[in-house]
Design brief:
The structure is a single chain. The chain is an alpha/beta fold and 537 residues long. The chain folds into 4 domains: 174 residues, Beta-Lactamase (2-Layer Sandwich), CATH 3.30.450.40; 175 residues, P-loop containing nucleotide triphosphate hydrolases (Rossmann fold, 3-Layer(aba) Sandwich), CATH 3.40.50.300; 73 residues, Helicase, Ruva Protein, domain 3 (Orthogonal Bundle); 87 residues, Arc Repressor Mutant, subunit A. It has 21 helices and 17 strands. The strands form 5 sheets. Strands 3-2-1-6-5-4 form a 6-stranded antiparallel beta sheet. Helix 1 runs antiparallel to helix 2. The N and C termini lie far apart (120 Å). The C terminus is likely disordered.
Length: 537
């Protein structure tokens, strides 16, 4: 039967290992957990002095990472190289070293100067390597913990080896997580740099006078925190401008959050913007942060702002005024630092006059207005955009598609009622479906070949429109006109032709032209066209 002292020793060792393993697993901060581990050894095993030496970040030397029984000054002195002293010997050989009496051991350097009068101390010093899968990460050293009756230290070495293995696993895990974190940080910085470059004003396609005015406004406004209202027809690139405002501002490294107000019903939009507390409504099983919270210190882009309901307009007005709000069903007031960019293709002035949009909110949003011109008014930009999208989609699909002269002429004459979005989609479709290297006029969609705007109707309606339309225009008829004048003539003729085909029904004509009823009404007034159009013979 083993002596009671050995049984006590085993119980103490097991208790120490259990507590140390729990401590090492509680955090990825090895310095903190190792320091706590030494305190456990002191409490349970009577440890007077111990050090954990790990490789420096530069990989050239080793220094004390955690210690017990040493002052900060003594810890700072604890720097070692492979082969230097007892610690260096363990690093070089990967084998434990026992110094029965440090006062009589020339290899013991007393680098920390923590032990005075070594010749009289009669202190044993034990060092074991901290290894994981054969890799030596450092050295664990302690003054003698136990000394059995024979004067040996096999039990101490065995215990320290197990302890060093636990510490080694913790160090390896911590370093692996840190390397992953640093890789993610580098990747994030790289992606942010790429995104910032993508939305740089210098990389935007379009050199027309009107777009140059837009770029100049964005360049002046981006560094500020002023609210911006981006206006323009659908497909003109309002979100692109919103992102340019963000990524060319001091907030570029912070979140850019987008909300499509038209895509969410009024009952969900409030929760989406401001968040909700658990139990605030049926189905709210947990607290949810709103987009304003997620965009804190960054930019919130509210697309189609003209579609929000009256109740949400009131709450949005308060946020713009006070930068504060409460989650749905909550009472705690939250403060945020958000730069707001809104966009709409609606006539907000008309909506205000009709009572559909709050006047005070309109003025809060319309601090810095940015007007995006439709593609038909961007002289010369269609060709630049065609070349840009053609290069992009050729690269994406591994093709070398080009346009014939006549096909390109048709592309440039088409008014693109869907603006840049329609042009982008048309170019991708043409490249994907192209059989040969050169796209001819017959390869173009019927709407472009027949100079008809894209509508929500299918092919048969377009065929009908083409058959019942007037004979094709002679391109030479427009040679004496300026481009804006020629566009007006073509647009007016197309509206008249479509009204005849739709028997004067404004809703059908607007659908066939790819316009809203409001937009068509504006153009009828612009060109002095009466709603009752005589039928064609």
């Amino acid at each position: 039967m083993p002596p009671p002292e050995k049984e006590t020793r085993k119980v103490s060792e097991l208790s120490a290992l259990y507590e140390v393993s729990r401590t090492l697993g509680s955090s990825l901060d090895v310095k903190e957990t190792s320091q706590k581990a030494f305190l456990i050894l002191h409490k349970l095993l009577g440890l007077n002095r111990g050090t954990l030496v790990l490789r420096d970040s530069d990989g050239e030397g080793y220094s004390i990472w955690a210690a017990y029984g040493l002052t900060d000054t003594e810890i700072e002195r604890g720097r070692y190289r492979v082969g230097e002293g007892v610690t260096g010997k363990v690093l070089a050989t990967g084998q434990p070293v026992v110094v029965p009496d440090i006062g009589k051991e020339p290899l013991f350097l007393n680098r920390t100067r923590a032990r005075s009068e070594l010749s009289k101390s009669n202190v044993a010093f034990l060092s074991v390597p901290v290894k994981v899968q054969g890799e030596i990460l450092g050295v664990l050293s302690v003054d003698r913990i136990f000394a059995d009756e024979t004067g040996g230290h096999q039990g101490d070495i065995r215990f320290l080896t197990v302890l060093a293995s636990l510490i080694g696993q913790a160090v390896k895990l911590s370093r692996s997580v840190e390397q992953g974190r640093q890789a993610l940080v580098r990747e994030k910085e790289q992606l942010q740099s790429e995104v910032k470059g993508r939305y740089s004003l210098a990389n935007m396609v379009g050199g027309s006078r009107k777009m140059q005015e837009v770029y100049a406004t964005v360049e002046r406004v981006a560094p500020t925190r002023s609210t911006v209202l981006v206006r323009g027809e659908s497909g003109t690139g309002k979100e692109l401008i919103a992102r340019a405002l963000h990524y060319n501002s001091p907030r570029a490294g912070r979140p850019f959050i987008r909300v499509s107000c038209a895509a969410l019903p009024a009952t969900l939009l409030e929760s989406e913007l401001f968040g909700h507390e658990r139990g605030s409504f049926t189905g709210a099983t947990e607290m949810r942060r709103g987009r304003f919270e997620l965009a804190d210190t960054g930019t919130l882009f509210l697309d189609e702002i003209g579609e929000i309901d009256a109740a949400t307009q009131v709450k949005l007005l308060r946020v713009l005024q006070e930068r504060k709000f409460e989650r749905l069903g909550g009472s705690r007031t939250l403060a945020v630092d958000v730069r707001l960019v809104a966009a709409t293709n609606r006539d907000l002035e008309k909506a205000v006059a009709e009572g559909g949009f709050r006047e005070d909110l309109y003025y809060r949003l319309n601090v810095i207005p940015v007007f995006l011109p439709p593609l038909r008014e961007r002289e010369g930009d269609v060709l630049m955009l065609v070349e840009h999208f053609l290069r992009r989609f050729n690269a994406e699909h591994g093709k070398s598609t080009t346009f014939s002269r006549e096909a390109l002429r048709r592309m440039l004459r088409y008014p693109w009622p869907g603006n840049v979005r329609e042009l982008e989609n048309a170019l991708e479709r043409l490249v994907v479906l192209a059989n040969g290297g050169t796209l001819e006029e017959d390869d173009l969609p019927l709407a472009i070949r027949s100079d008809l705007p894209v509508s929500s109707h299918t092919g048969p309606l377009l065929e009908h429109s083409r058959a019942s339309a007037s004979p094709p225009r002679d391109p030479r008829a427009d040679e004496g006109r300026s481009l804006p004048e020629a566009v007006r003539v073509i647009e007016k003729e197309r509206i008249l032709r479509t009204l005849r085909e739709c028997e004067g029904i404004q809703t059908r004509a607007a659908q066939a032209l790819g316009l809203t009823v409001r937009q068509l009404g504006y153009k009828l007034k612009k060109y002095g066209i009466k709603l009752r159009v005589p039928q064609a013979d």
